[in-house]
Amino acid sequence: MAGVVIDSLKFAADGGCITGKLALSSLPRLSDVLAGTAGCLVCELSGFRDTDNHDGKFGLHLRVTGRLDLWCQRCLAEVEFECVIDNHLLLMPPGAPESEWPEEELESDDYDAIPASRELSVQSLVEDEVLLALPIVPRHADCLPPVVLETEVGLSEPSPFAVLAGLKKH
After folding, report:
1. What are the extents of the domains in the chain?
2. Residue 50: Cβ within 10 Å count
3. For the chain, which end, N or C, has fewer CB atoms within 10 Å of the first or last residue's CB respectively?
4. How many angstroms separate the CA atoms of 117 and 114, rounded?
């Protein structure tokens, strides 16, 4: 799937389907937030025409699964995140400004609207959707924050701000 570029409207109209794997190391924006880039994502992208709800508009159905290693924001250790994405993306007409997109299509939780493109990178689409699916604050369910280490005397080190406050008094 890496390097695959599609004409999104033609792909959807033809009912196209692409399946494959993307190495985590091939996704640079995602790699920046991961604890490790070993492994891959299993992806499936298929095109469809929605005749039921959106007057025959075209869309893409994206499924992505895989395990990601993130940094726990509480204990700062690695935490596993099972990425499961099952999104329907409604293709909006090319060139139409987002302000003109019908509001009912943007308010629905069934679809996310994206602009149609003649050169849509499947890799970039997958990376965008995975980044949107990440938790805002990844953390373990049962970890504790880091503890303050005690010095040899048994007392914790003074705060650097306390030292500065002491200097200010002199």
Report:
1. 5-169
2. 18
3. C
4. 9
